[in-house]
Amino acid sequence: MLEIKDLHAEIPDVNGGKQILNGLSLTVNAGEVHAIMGPNGAGKSTLAYVLGGRPGYEVTGGSVKFAGEDLLEMDPHERAAAGLFLGFQYPVEIPGVSNVQFLREALNAQRQAREEEPLTGGEFLKHAKEQAALLKLDMDMLKRQVNVGFSGGEKKRAEMVQMGILDPKLAVLDETDSGLDIDALKTVGNGINAIMRKPDKGVLLITHYQRLLDYVKPDFVHILSQGRIVKTGEADLAQRLEAEGYDAVMAEVA
Hints:
Blueprint (H helix, E strand, L loop, with lengths): L1 E10 L6 E11 L4 E5 L6 H9 L5 E9 L2 E2 L5 H7 L1 E4 L6 E5 H15 L7 H14 L4 H4 L2 E2 L5 H15 L3 E5 L7 H15 L5 E5 L13 E6 L2 E6 L1 H10 L1 H5 L4
Parallel strand pairs: 3-10, 3-11, 6-9, 9-10
Antiparallel strand pairs: 1-2, 1-4, 4-5, 7-8, 11-12
Helix pairs in contact: 2-3, 4-6, 6-7
């Protein structure tokens, strides 16, 4: 589904650019959940932004294939229509635009790009109610402006509802557990499982902590350091990181 080979990326600036990713390789197959962990500055969010096509990041080497296509040749909206979803660490507010309006336009824009018929208002609301129920989000929240006045946990749950409505093939979730209390963490984790834990979907879950992985059980855990993956293991690797810290575990591969 996702095949990253020897990926290099930098943030260009007047001094020639700052290299962030340094030969990162990773394969995510359909039906798999991969967790990316690593210390601050390792390149975790940069990886998410590069995959999503966020401006301000320049790929200087390597390749990324998504569902057999060259992801790096696609514009961000084309990546979304192809089935890539990017969840942000800090979801943005969009004053003046309701969640219902935003999500219906986003879904129908993707359907149009795939040459599918748009959903009617009634069809969309039925779909939105079903997805909101998975995340225990009241439909009244979806009538409000996008993330305006939402708590951190409400923003993350609303973003997961967005993911459910758009129904992507691959979800890249950048620190989805950030700002969540215990109850919200469980709700979001269970929501990710209900939406994305399917044989034809994949998840790349970027996190600092093991706590979300108690609910979203990864098939593989990767440690990212200095822009490349330095160690890969199963779910118990995250537990070791929680108990021993990055320095102790990464000393084994130094």
